[in-house]
Prior knowledge:
By secondary structure, the protein is of the alpha/beta class. It has two domains: about 1-295, Aminopeptidase; about 305-395, Alpha-Beta Plaits (2-Layer Sandwich). Helices cover about 35% and strands about 25% of the residues. It contains 14 helices and 16 strands. The strands form four sheets. Strands 1-15-14-16-12-13 form a six-stranded mixed sheet. Strand 3 and strand 4 (about 100-105) form a beta hairpin. The longest helix is centred in the middle third of the chain and has 20 residues, at about 200-220.
Amino acid sequence: MYWDPPVRPAKRKFALGKRHRQLLFIIAFLLLVLIFVYAVNLAASTNAWQNSTDWAKELRRQGEGQEEVFLLYGIDYWGANPYVEQLVVVHHDTGSGAVNLILVPGNTLVETGEQGEELLGQLYRREGNPAFIHRVQELTGLPVQHYLELNYQAIAVLADLLGGIEPRQLKYGGEGLLPAGSKPLGGFELYRYFTGSYGQTPEEQLQRRREVLLLLWERLSEKRFGRLARYMSKLRPYVETDLSWREMRELREQFKSYDFAEVAINHLPGEEKLINGGLCWVPDYGAIEDLLRQINNEGYSIPPEEIRVEVLNGTTIPGLAARLSAALEAEGFEVAGIGNADSADYEQTQVIALGTSVDKARTVALFVPEASMLHRPDPEATVDVRIIIGRNFEQNDD
């Protein structure tokens, strides 16, 4: 399973009001799902949402230690094709209690090797899971252990089940988002209101979505068990998670009592650019490394002298393994061997944790420019960390 290196403080800060709007959006996103597991008797229905495949179980084995990482994302449609419109990575340090959110735009541009650069949200359609989650891990540098997927069509389904939403309850319409008249909005109309942009800023869009999710949550909380169970059965095609009903209830209780004033909100470092006629979010990988470093309390927990590494060249450029191994030895690492990787076509450098913990790989990643961090436990490995050099190493090596 994948994930990237340590990280630098986010360069972009939010004003207090904007931060609270984004927080409320995330909280509402969670509550929309978690409200359905308020009663223990709903266990049978919520378990139908749980993905218990081998790859989903494997996610939980990543990143042992005092961290929990959740990935939340919403799915919309581009014509008939699904794509991920927005992602939120939640990092929880269970030791200190610190919570960090990383907001990731769906139009983030990522390198995919043979396919070139593509938008992260569109990769969901082509690759599916677990490959899509692996992409998010490579981009953010965090090992996703749990995920929650919400298809925005659930908004339309819920609105119809609830008999519609009164337009007067919606305050962030903007031009063209609300139909004329005072009739309740049906499913399609509320979905259109929820997903439309119509020239609004990202912050205004977040505020509008927060408004819809909180309204739906409020209406659902008024329903009795019988109707809740029926609604949940209708929503099964639109919600997927690796979490069991017990874990979801525990998460609900955790969020219920948490002091959100302590949550740090970070936008994925980068900048918006017009590329091939479309707006894309271009990541700043150096700043992402700094952000991860900040989230992980900077520095490293295991000194280089206690770490055995293997360095393999995954490119056609000669001498890279020898150059990197010399640099690592100068920092105190024990380089147990160098050689060639199984392929000479690696695009991105990889730092692979081979033990049960990722702590040693995290230390190594501090010294390897723009490397992706992966966790592939191997009980037969004779080294702690394997490094496979990709073509980006030559581009970023000082």
